[in-house]
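Researcher: For the annotation table, I need structure tokens for NADH dehydrogenase [ubiquinone] 1 beta subcomplex subunit 11, mitochondrial. Please keep the output clean. Sequence:
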Amino acid sequence: MIRTQTTTLIRAPLAARSNGKRFASHGPVYHEPSGYLFAEKPPAKGQKRRKESWESIYYIGLFGTVAFGFVGYMYKPDSSIQSWALEEAKRRMEARGDLPKYVPSGYDVVRPYSRD
């Protein structure tokens, strides 16, 4: 008899062992929808919306961080493999005595609708 009760208690979930009581509950947390964005009623006609105390610092921090990140991204050093290879090729060509200068291959641009 004791053996069956202990195995039942071990196998039974916690909710069944505590007779259905939930001790962590602080009451209902369901908020009825009001139809307003963030449950904030619009101000009366002719009045401005009053900002909360945290909104200004939030906007300054958000847009300041975005601006700082954008400037940092624009001025980051070029570390691509293509730019390194180009510089390395120029350096090696100058060491050999070749000119790292682009010379067109003789292709002439012809105007498609010229009346010569």
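Researcher: And a one-line annotation?
Model: The radius of gyration is 37 Å.
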